[in-house]
Write a structure and sequence with these properties.
Number of helices: 4
Number of strands: 5
CATH superfamily: DsrEFH-like
Shape: globular
Low-confidence stretches: none
Structural class: alpha/beta
Strand order of the largest sheet: 4-3-2-1-5
Radius of gyration: 12 Å
Order of helices and strands: EHEHEHEHE
Number of domains: 1
Mean pLDDT: 96
Distance between the termini: 23 Å
Amino acid sequence: MSKLGILVNTNKYVDDVVGVVKAARAAGHEVSIFIMDDGTLLAAELAKACADDASLAYCDHSAQPRGVKDVEGATAGSQYQNAVMMHDADKVVVF
């Protein structure tokens, strides 16, 4: 089993992100998602759709000016969580 990291930095492609997560989990891979910039606008939707299939964290610094806070099912963090995901992942996909 390999580890897939998904970096979401845009508020587009939510269906594609969810599809990749579901396909990766179905293939037995571990999935981590880090959400930043405009991607934080999708944090709640991604947490709802993927919380059972992936660990999610978002950049609180990016989220605050966009009015995103306290996303259930995701960790409010910093670029540290992004760095950990990048380090631990065997592959990273960027949206």
